[in-house]
C-alpha cells in the first residue's frame, strides 16, 4: 500500500509510526489505567500534530484530508494499539 501513498501521506505515516514506536508503546498500560481510559496528554499531542483535524475542511480549521489520509492515520494508530478515541471522535464526527 505504501507505493500508492503521496509523499505527504508517507511522511504522515512515518511520523505517526515513529511516535507510536518511540513514545507510545511503553506507556500503553499506564494509559488504560486512567479514569478516561486513555491519555489526555497524548490526545493533546494528536491535536497539536494535526491528526485530529485531518478530515475536516480548512474553513473548519482542518486539513481537507481524504479517506486515504484517514486510513494512513488509523492504520498507524492501530499498529500501536493506540487506545485514544480517534474513530468515535474524529472519523465518525466527519459525517
Report on the structure:
The chain has five helices and no strands. The protein has about 100 residues and is mostly helical. It has one domain. The protein is globular, with a radius of gyration of 13 Å.
Please mark out the parts with pLDDT under 50 across 5 or more consecutive residues, or reply none: none
Largest sheet: none
Spell the H/E element sequence. Answer: HHHHH
SS class: mainly alpha
Overall geometry comes to globular
**What is the total number of structural domains?**
1
Euclidean distance between termini CA atoms: 25 Å
Quick synopsis:
By secondary structure, this protein is an all-alpha fold. It has helices spanning 7-24, 28-32, 40-48, 67-79, 86-91.
Q: How do the helices and strands line up, and which of them pair or pack?
A:
Elements: H1 7-24, H2 28-32, H3 40-48, H4 67-79, H5 86-91
Helix pairs in contact: 1-4
Which characteristics define this entry?
globular, 95 residues, mainly alpha
Amino acid at each position: 500500500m505504501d507505493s500508492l501513498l503521496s509523499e505527504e501521506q508517507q511522511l504522515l505515516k512515518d511520523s505517526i509510526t515513529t511516535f507510536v514506536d518511540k513514545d507510545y508503546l511503553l506507556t500503553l498500560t499506564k494509559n488504560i489505567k486512567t479514569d478516561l481510559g486513555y491519555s489526555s496528554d497524548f490526545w493533546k499531542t494528536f491535536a497539536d500534530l494535526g491528526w485530529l483535524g485531518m478530515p475536516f475542511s480548512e474553513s473548519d480549521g482542518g486539513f481537507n484530508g481524504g479517506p486515504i489520509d484517514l486510513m494512513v492515520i488509523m492504520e498507524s494508530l492501530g499498529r500501536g494499539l493506540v487506545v485514544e478515541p480517534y474513530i468515535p471522535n474524529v472519523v465518525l464526527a466527519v459525517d
